[in-house]
Amino acid sequence: MNAAMLRLIALRLALGLLTLAIVSALVFTATELLPGDVAEALLGQSATPQAVAGLRAALHLDQPAWKRFLIWAGGMLSGDPGRSLVNQLPVASLIGNRLPNSLKLAGLTACVTVPLALTLGITTAMWRGSRYDRIVATLIIGIVSVPEFLIASLAVMIFAVKLRWLPALAFRAGVQDFWTMLWLLAMPIGTLTLVGIGQMARMTRAALVTVLASSYIEMARLKGAGPIRIVLIHALPNALGPIVNAVALSTSFLLGGVIIVETIFNYPGLAKLMVDAVSTRDLPLVQACAMLFCGAYLSLVLIADVVAILANPRLRQR
């Protein structure tokens, strides 16, 4: 790894940390702007002004916003995001109970989405302009045009209500069998796959088509290389950077879909926890969940940038 690569990677890391700091301020500001008063919401409408004032002082809500932000940011940096205002449990334990469920759903979705999207993107680039390419492009545009909440709702109506092939609820406690778990998660995985596959396949195709138009690819064709060898040996390694970016961005787009999917299918994941926390104005829990989602998005983008730098042949040859 040469000095140019190290400088670019260090710059990306610094920009990522700066972006995360800015995002933390935006998350804190956005939660502070939520309508209503936390103390009144917790005590109810019959609470006396003295009780509301006492609770606000106990929750440090009577302090300036900048001071509360510093206290909250310090807790996040130390790994202590505070306690839930609703049930007085540590936020870290509440998130720890739900995070494995979200990671399980995201991992299974990625295992389906990434290979399928890459296969569609690579094959349509190989046979660009063909009937297969046009059919796949039309299907992808149609899928991308449909919002995830509509896909999830239609899936419940068709497969759970009409056909009764799949359960409407995507979770049962104590399920250990892998195939039973897949049966329970079939509709959430299918919905998230449809959400993420379109953009990933289109960006993969675009990256490969650009590389396949290069002069060294034409030279490989003149030397008698077959289409599969040209794509897998010559084109794919040089398109790795844009493809990794496509995978990272499309995977990060699933974060928005997870919130809707977990809510519709009543899946006990991190997104469902965040939605419930918003409805009860549990600000420490909302802030911690939002930072986890933002941190995951920035991490994926940062990893994609680093891989793109490492895969850049110009930087490797300096």
Give structural notes.
- It contains 15 helices and no strands.
- The protein is mainly alpha-helical and 318 residues long.
- The protein is globular, with a radius of gyration of 24 Å.
- The termini are close together.
Task: Write out key terms for the chains shown.
318 residues; single chain; 0% strand; mainly alpha; globular; MetI-like fold
Topology, pairings included?
Layout: H1 3-32, H2 38-43, H3 49-58, H4 65-77, H5 91-126, H6 131-145, H7 148-162, H8 178-184, H9 186-212, H10 215-222, H11 227-238, H12 240-264, H13 270-279, H14 283-310, H15 313-316
**Which percent bin holds the helix content?**
over 70%
Query: Sheet bearing the most strands, described?
Result: none
**Beta content:** under 5%
> What's the helix count?
15
Quickly give the CATH architecture: Orthogonal Bundle
CATH first level = Mainly Alpha
In sequence order, what are the helices and strands, one letter per element?
HHHHHHHHHHHHHHH
Provide the low-confidence segments as ranges: none
Task: Please summarize what this structure is.
This protein has 318 residues and is mainly α. The chain has helices at 3-32, 38-43, 49-58, 65-77, 91-126, 131-145, 148-162, 178-184, 186-212, 215-222, 227-238, 240-264, 270-279, 283-310, 313-316. Helix 7 packs across helix 12.
